[in-house]
Design goal:
Strand content: 5-15%
CATH class of the largest domain: Alpha Beta
CATH superfamily of the largest domain: STAS domain
Structural class: alpha/beta
Number of domains: 2
Number of helices: 3
Distance between the termini: 50 Å
CATH topology of the largest domain: Transcription Regulator spoIIAA
Largest sheet: 4 strands, mixed
Radius of gyration: 18 Å
Shape: globular
Order of helices and strands: EEHEHEH
Length: 128
């Protein structure tokens, strides 16, 4: 186990605040994405770790028309950014993706970032 830069202990001190001293985050519910017909089906928590891990998988998903989030319990801002970028890329290909499901955090973050329900930055309803 790595040592804390501020401590001679081989264990993580509870008050250590630097990134070098904190243990690495391990996803308790690893996210996944798979193409099923014309759907890209996500499962697990879509957080920063998941967005990083899934990026290469979802960059070119093929002729996907539906993003299925029904098996996603929660999304954070990095997960929402992944979904927004994916929908933007699909729209650039002439596909208007449909989103199934709204995990915890999805509606709140979409509103905070002024995204339309379709995760479009440029939609007329995005600014309202």
């Amino acid at each position: 186990m790595p040592r804390c830069a501020r401590s001679r202990s081989s264990r993580w001190p509870p008050n250590c605040a630097t990134a070098a001293c904190r243990p690495p985050r391990v996803a308790s519910n690893p996210a996944s994405a798979s193409v099923q017909g014309t759907s890209l089906v996500f499962s697990g928590v879509l957080d920063r770790a998941a967005a990083t891990a899934l990026w290469n998988t979802v960059q070119a998903p093929g002729p996907v028309q539906v993003l299925d989030l029904t098996a996603v319990p929660q999304v954070d801002s990095a997960g929402l950014a992944l979904l927004a970028e994916l929908t933007a890329r699909l729209r650039a290909q002439g596909i208007q993706p449909h989103i199934n499901g709204a995990p915890a955090g999805f509606n709140e973050l979409s509103a905070a970032y002024r995204l339309a329900p379709s995760l479009d930055f440029n939609a007329p309803t995005a600014a309202s």
